Amino acid sequence: MKITIYSWSISLLRPREPELLDALFLSVGRALHLASAYEDKCRYVLRVGNLITAHQADPAMTFEVAVASVPADKLLGGTLHSLAAGPWT
């Protein structure tokens, strides 16, 4: 009795358009890099905004105490809502 095993994998198939796949993966990589950079910039703006809010609450506070009082895990959505309700609107 002869047993024939049929197996295949996508990785064994040759890409039909390798240049298009390279361009696709390059574009996806760039988009991921831009999204990560945007997230880092948003985190920085969030921390600076929270630092300004902490300093405005107590102007006599030293810089070290103000930095220590800024919550590290405050989310962007809540901060944006509190900034929108600020005195400049």
Describe this entry's structure for a reader.
Helix 1 (18-57) crosses helix 3. Helix content is 63%, strand content 0%. The protein has 3 helices and no strands. The longest helix is centred in the middle third of the chain and has 40 residues, at 18-57. By secondary structure, it is an all-alpha fold. 1% of the residues are buried. The radius of gyration is 26 Å and the shape is elongated.
Give keywords.
89 residues, mainly alpha, 63% helix
Tell me briefly what this model is.
It contains three helices and no strands. By secondary structure, it is mainly alpha-helical.
Would you spell out the secondary-structure blueprint of this structure?
Blueprint: H1 18-57, H2 63-69, H3 76-84
Helix pairs in contact: 1-3
Low-confidence stretches: none
Main β sheet profile: none
Tally of DSSP β-strands: 0
Helix count, per DSSP?
A: 3
- Secondary-structure element order, N to C: HHH
Structural class: mainly alpha
Percentage of β-strand residues: under 5%
Distance between the amino and carboxyl termini: 82 Å
Helix content: 55-70%
Overall morphology: elongated
Rg calculated over all Cα atoms = 26 Å
Mean pLDDT: 78
